Structures are given as C-alpha cells and as structure tokens.
Amino acid sequence: MIAETAHTAPGLALALILLSAAFTDNILLTRFLGMCPFLSISRQLRSAFGMGLAVVFVTTGTCVLNYWLYVYLLKPLEAYGVPAESLKLILFIVVIAAFVQLMEMLIERISIRLYFSLGIFLPLITVNCAILGASLFMVNNVASRGFGTLDVLVYGFGTGLGWFIAILLMAGIRHRLRNAKVPAALEGAGITLIITGIMAMAFVIFQGMIKL
Amino acid sequence: MTFLQPILLATLAACGLTTVLAGLLLVAERYLVRYGTCRIDVNAGGRVLEVEGGQSLLASLMGQSIFIPSACGGRGTCAYCKLKVLEGGGPVAPTELPLLTEQEVADNVRISCQVKVRNDVRIEVPEPLLSVREYRGVVERIRDLTHDIKELRIRLVEPREIDFTAGQYVQLEAPAYGDNPEPVYRAYSMSSVPSEKAAIELILRLVPGGICTTWVFTILKEGDEVTFNGPYGGFRLSDTGSGMVWIAGGSGMAPFWSMVRHMKQQGLARPCRYFFGAVKQRDLFLVDELRQLEKELDWFTFTPALSGPTDGDEWPGERGRITEVVAKHVADGSELEAYLCGSPGMIDAAAAVLRGKGITEERTYFDKFG
Amino acid sequence: MPAPEPQTQITRPGQALLVQLWRENPIFRQVLGICSALAVTNLIFNTALMCAGLIWTTTMSSLTVSLIRDYIPRRVRVMVQVLIISVYVIVVDIVFRALFFETHKDIAAYVGLIITNCIVLGRLEAFASKNKPLLSAADGLGAGLGYSLILLFVAVVREVLGFGTVLKNTAWETVVLRGWEPGVHETWWRSWTILVIPPGAFFVLAVAVWIAKAYDLRRQAGTQAKEAPQAKEGGA
C-alpha cells in the first residue's frame, strides 16, 4: 500500500509512515523498547519532557545516518561476503554514540538553557534500547518496503515522537497517582507495568486504522 | 584464503568507521569546546585571574592557587564549594538546584564545581579562603596513639611556614594508590599549636574502608612527601572570654589539643572543662599529658569517660556516655560556651543535653567531622 | 565521608550466582532489561532462544571485562564494554541465523538489542569491572538465569493461555488446551487473545513482579519480627 501511495500521493505516504511509527507501532507500547529510562524518568513531568525531546532528536538523526551507512557501506560489502546483517549491530551503536557526543557538544555551544533541559539526558540515551531499536526496525522497513532517505527521516521522527508521547502520558498519570493507594507489593514497578499495559491496550485501537 | 576476505573487510569497515567518527569528535571538540581566555574578577577587582575557558569554576580557581574546599572532588554532591557568582555564571544547572536554598539562588550563590567558565565572570570569595594555600611537606614522625589512632607530624617544605588559628583544619591529599585511580582530599584538624609554624600535627582515626586513613595507616612512611592545603574552618576560640565546655571523642581531640596548649602559651586563662568520651580504656590517649596540664593550669579540667569499659580495665574515672557525664558535671550553662568536635551523632546528642543546661545555640560551636 | 560497607561481600562463585538469581534478581528488584525480550514472550520457544542468547552474552562479557578490567582507561570504559557486548551478540546472531532460521526472522531485531540491554551493561559496570573473572562470570550467569526465570514464566503464561499451545511452530509443538479431535481448531479454552498482544506482556509481568514482591515482603516481615531490637551505641 505504501508503494502505490508513494506514487500518487507522496505526502500521504509520509503521513502514514509518521502515524504508524508513532502510534500503531509505538516503539514503547507495542515493541517494548526504551523501558528502563521510561520507568525511572517518568516520575517527573519536567525531566520526562527533556528526555523525550532528546530521544526524538537522536532517533531522527541516527536513523538517517544509519540508513546511509547501511545503503552505501554495508550493502555493497555484502557482495564480498561480509555479513552485513550482523555487522550492522556494531556499526549502528558506534554511530549512535558518536552522534550523541557530537550533539552534546553542539547544544552546549549553542544554548546553555537548551543544554540544561535536554543536553544532560543525552549521555543517558546512548544505550537506550529504543534508539538502536529504531535503527534496526528501520533496516527491516528498508528491506521490505523500500524506504528512501525522506521516508527514513519521517520514520525516525515518528518513532521518537511515539516514545515522547508515551513518556509524557505516563508521567502525567504517575503524577496523578501520587496520592492513590497502591498495594505495597505493587508499588513502583508493578503498578507502572499495569499502567503501561492499559496504555498499550489503548494504542491497540490504532492497529486497525492504519495498515502500512 | 577467501574466507579471510569478509573478515578482513568487516574489521576494516568497523575500524574505519570508528576512526572517522573519533576523528570527527576530536575536531569538533577542538572547535566547538573552545572558549578562549576568560577573566575571573575576584572580590571586585581584588584579584583578577586569566584562565582557559571550558573548565569548572572550582578547577579554574584551583589552577590559580585559590583553594575552595571540596569534599566530593567536583561531583556536585557535597556543596562545600559554594561561592557567590555575581556575573557570567550562566543559568543555574539542574545539578546545583538540589544543593541550594531559594535564598541562596536569589543571592547568586552557586556550586562552583558545576559552574562552567565560558566567559568572563565576577565572583566573591570569602577572604579567609584567599589565604588558603597548597603546602608540600615531609612526614617527620608517625606515632601510634591508640590501636586505631595515629598522630602525623609533617615538616613543611614549600612554603616553609603556615599561619593558622587553633581549631582550623587542612585538607590532606591521599594520592592514587591500589584501587583508587585518583587522589582524594580529606579534612583533618591540626593538633599542633599555631606558634609552631614550620610543622603541623594531625590526629587520624582509621576508618574501615576509608581511602585516606587506609593510605596513612598502611602505606605512608616517615620521610614520605605529602601535600595538603589550608588552613580552613571557622572552628576557633571565641573572643568573648566566657567559660567553655569542650566535648570531643576519638580524633575530635585534635583541635582541643591545639587550643589548650595555645591558651597555655598565650596565658589565656579562661575557665575550661574538657570532656573526652571513649568506649574502652585502650581508646584513650594523651591522658597523662592532659592530666599534667590540669595540674599546671588552675582554669582547666579534664574529664575522660568510658561508655563501655571491659572488665579488665580497672577504670577509676567516669563511666557512661559522654552526654550523661557532661549532664552530671555541668549544672548551669547560661554563662558558658560549648565547643563540640566529633561524629554528627555525638554532636547532636551533646548539643541537646547542653541546650537543656542553658547553653544556647548561638553559643555552641561545632566541628562536625564524622 | 567514606561510603558505608555493602551488606555482604560476595566471595564465592556459587554465592554470586544465587544472589543474582533471586535476591538481587535484576528484573524485579530493579526492573531492568525487560525491553528487549518482552516482545517475544508470547511464544515459549522464542523466549527460550532470547534467554539463551542473553545468558551467553552476560556470562561471556562479564568474564571478558573482568579479565581486562585493569587495562581499560576510564574515559572509554562504557564504549569498550559496549563493543565487547556487541561482539558476543554478533556471535549469537550468526548462530541463531544458521540454526534457527525461521524463528530468527521474528526475533532478529531483539537479539541485536541485547547489546543495549540494561542488565548486561549494569552487571558489567557494577560487578565485572571490579571483581575477579570467575566471580564475575558467575554473577553474569546468575543475572542471565534470573532474567530467564521471569521471562519464561511470562512466556509460559502467555503462550498456554493465549495460544493454547506449548512450543508452537516448532517440531515439539504440543497443543495443551484442546478437545479430543486433532483436526479441530477450537479449544475448549477460549484463548485469551489479550495475552498474545503487547498489553498482555505488561500485565503478566506486573503479576509476576507482584507475586515476587509480595512473597518478599512477607518474608521480610517474618524475619523482622524474629530479630530483637538492638540498643544503639552512639558517641565517637
């Protein structure tokens, strides 16, 4: 469906990619990635916001960079017998680490305020599963649906956005829950998982709406 | 050999990419993290420093031999390094906020290890800190006072003399050793008298797992070189001349040993009752010297107390917790000042007892060492 | 002020393993590392493969990092650890691709994500970089096993109640909840589809954490009641 739409209405195709990345295939609620910082940072709305922004930023950037790396370096190497699928794991993570460090330096230079609200989360997300996961799923999409650079950009942005929305929602809910009576054994991890499950159920609605 | 080809290519690709990225990061660091020379104006022009931008304020000042106290080594946890940054400090970092009160933020007080020098700054440094210097010395003598307390005597090399007030402390540097990759600084009160300027003495108690005391107790030898900076601290004899109650335990003896001998030298005859608490007899030290002083000085009394003497101790003196002993001996504290030096737990308990005796908070001085 | 000493010193490999298995089980003590495997827990076989991969990775990287711990410069510590983990994960990836091709297609991305799994990195940072090789390997093995314990529990619940089968899509598939006639697709148990879709994983995991914590709280309350209160010795 994407291929045909791409010819007739490219904008619509991009919108579909964005919506499916953010909602239908929400990287956190349907693919379970990026949970660790999610569970700890979602306690405060402010840091959740900062972290979410950082994730959007990094997923978009690294998806595009890793796409170029995959298409222009790894794929051609396959002709020589190099297992691109396995090698990409190391290369992607190296790119992500370098990107994050570079961004940290840039942001600190450009705006201290931005650095304090967003930059300090950057080192934390180098090893966030969601970032690497976004790149890996992007590769799947490239293989199965023939994504191009713009598609990948939108896909990365959508993925990060989905994580951002999930963490904002969670922070808001936990904020409300502060005064609720939770059974002792469920406090902390337990109740957060249940909330996440309910949120995931809500997002399942989108599955029928957008068929990529 | 064809099976080698993919392996070689894969390794080449991985290494090549890593090198390119590392190179990119290095270049970026050179051009992006470049702040040039910045001016630090201290105390409205009292001192003006030119430093390389990009470091924390604390590190920049230390590089110019202005030693701001720091216990955590710049990690942003101890809040010892508070300074007033009037201009150029940038927005308050999120790591500083938990350590500052609202009033402090309004007064431009900042955690100097978390403030990065990116441009010219104007700061205020309390005068006593400006006279803090770094000293190099040689260990002249290490003396065992008890099974876990040692006295360290350090002869000064550079600079040759130190000026301090009885009760102040220095930060001794324990160099990198064993499992510790970085030097650490720990604070110890000087037990020597201020009139002796060419050497200092410190009293250290071995803390299990403590980085500095383990180094002193197991590695440091007489003749070794050491580094420390100071003098720091506002714990000192007041100007009032009122009678005093001193309470200490363990290595808390240090400032009082300095103070009492200083008072003797200067002829400061203020009524002074010194209570020293320990658990067993083997934890007591300098008892004979202090009893001798008690005989010589009619204004000084020394009362050691054991809280848990073993049966073989034959202890004729006071027994019980130091706070109980103080309560027993001090009837009316309304004219007295109190000086406390020891662990936070002991200090809090003692302060409560003293409050009950009429010694107000303003007349109670603490040296919380833990 | 020096930091307080940890409660017990881990000195024996067996002890290291057992501690990681239950008392300090990474998943419900610290809720770490659930990301990369929750998605596959709707099938027991996939989960088993993931767990095998993780156990291999944690054990081997703990061993490796512990062996070279004195030679890694501090600044690049995290990067070196991630690179070591990547190497072992690539091995897992290649083995799975060769031996279990069909299943690998479904779980490929998640196998790769073992690299960023908080448990692996966490154990390296907290234990392997400071302890001897054999001890660290045992610690890694224990962490992997503890993780597998929880995940397999979740997988069993999800597959049996969600699909009605055990080890679906493998040569060993067993249909557990089914009527007499083998050709009939309907089972007498209405499959709980909710367990098959993502939310199900969260709920089952929440229940697992709930049970574990409740058991733990009960045990703590029991031991506290037995201990007599000790008088505190204050003073210097």
Structural write-up:
Chain A has helices at residues 2-8, 10-24, 35-41, 45-78, 84-110, 112-117, 122-125, 129-145, 149-177, 189-204, 206-209. Chain A has 212 residues and is an all-alpha fold. Chain A has one domain (2-209). In chain A, helix 1 (2-8) packs antiparallel against helix 2 (10-24), helix 4 runs antiparallel to helix 9 and helix 9 packs across helix 10. The mean pLDDT of chain A is 82. By secondary structure, chain B is of the alpha/beta class. Chain B contains 9 helices and 17 strands. With 236 residues, chain C is mainly alpha-helical. Chain C has one domain. In chain C, 65% of the residues lie in helices and 2% in strands. Chain C has a two-stranded antiparallel ribbon with strand order 1-2. Residues 1-8 and 228-236 of chain C have low confidence and may be disordered. Chains in contact: A-B, A-C, B-C. The A-B interface holds A 69, 73-74, 77, 80-83, 87, 90-91, 94-95, 98, 101-102, 105-106, 108-109, 112-113, 116, 120 and B 2, 5-6, 9-10, 13-14, 17-18, 21-22, 24-25, 28-29, 32-33, 90-91, 93-95, 118.
Supply the key terms.
heterotrimer, A: 212 residues, mainly alpha, B: 370 residues, Ubiquitin-like (UB roll), Elongation Factor Tu (Ef-tu), domain 3, Rossmann fold, 3 domains
Helix content of chain C: 55-70%
Distance between the termini of chain C: 15 Å
Tally of distinct domains of chain C: 1
Q: Outline the low-pLDDT stretches of chain C.
A: 1-8, 228-236
Beta-strand residue percentage of chain A: under 5%
How are helices and strands ordered from N to C of chain C?
Answer: HHHHHHHHEEHH
Secondary-structure-derived class of chain A? mainly alpha
Main pleated sheet of chain C: 2 strands, antiparallel
State the strand order across the main sheet of chain C.
Answer: 1-2
What is the rounded distance between the termini of chain A? 7 Å
What is the arithmetic mean of pLDDT of chain C?
77
- Average pLDDT rating of chain A: 82
How many β-strand stretches of chain A? 0
SSE blueprint and pairings:
The complex is a heterotrimer of chains A (212), B (370) and C (236).
Chain A (H helix, E strand, L loop, with lengths): L1 H7 L1 H15 L10 H7 L3 H34 L5 H27 L1 H6 L4 H4 L3 H17 L3 H29 L11 H16 L1 H4 L3
Helix pairs in contact in A: 1-2, 2-9, 4-5, 4-8, 4-9, 5-8, 8-9, 9-10
Chain B lengths: L3 H29 L4 E6 L4 E6 L4 H7 L18 E6 L14 H5 L2 E3 L9 E4 L2 H4 L2 E12 L4 E10 L10 E6 L9 E6 L9 E7 L5 H8 L6 E8 L11 E6 L3 H14 L5 E7 L8 H10 L3 E7 L11 E2 L2 H8 L7 E6 L1 H13 L7 E5 L2
Parallel strand pairs in B: 1-5, 12-13, 12-16, 13-14, 14-15, 16-17
Antiparallel strand pairs in B: 1-2, 3-4, 3-5, 6-7, 6-11, 7-10, 8-9, 8-11
Helix pairs in contact in B: 8-9
Chain C lengths: L12 H11 L2 H5 L4 H4 L5 H24 L9 H23 L1 H12 L5 H11 L4 H30 L2 E2 L7 E2 L17 H4 L1 H29 L10
